[in-house]
Design brief:
By secondary structure, the protein is mainly alpha-helical. It is 56% helix and 6% strand. The protein is elongated and about 45 Å long.
Length: 124
Amino acid sequence: MILLRRLLGDVLRRQRQRQGRTLREVSSSARVSLGYLSEVERGQKEASSELLSAICDALDVRMSELMREVSDELALAELAQSAAATGSVPTSVRPMLGSVSVTGVPPERVTIKAPVEAVDVVAA
C-alpha cells in the first residue's frame, strides 16, 4: 500500500536536507514542534494544509512545487507496485520512462532507478 503521508514526508525531508537545514531550524521557523515535524517527515503523522503551508514557507518552497514532487513520487510508486504485481512495466508506460529501469528486489518490492541525466529540471 502506498502511503501519501510517507511520500510527503520523504519529499519534505529532502527539501530540508538540500538546504542544509536542521529539523530544529525548520520547526522553529514554521512554528511547529520539533517532534511533530519529525513525525511528519517520517510519515507517521498526516499534515494539515495549514501545517504544510507553514513548513513550505519555512523552507521557502511553493506548496505547488512540493505537491508536484510528491505527485511524481506517487506515480513512480504506483508504477513500481504495478510492475511488482504483473512482473513487467505496461507497454503503454515504457515510452514515458526513457532510460528508467525497474528491478525486482525481492519479488514483492520493486526499486526504480533513473540516471540523473534522465531527469529534466525546469525553472518556474
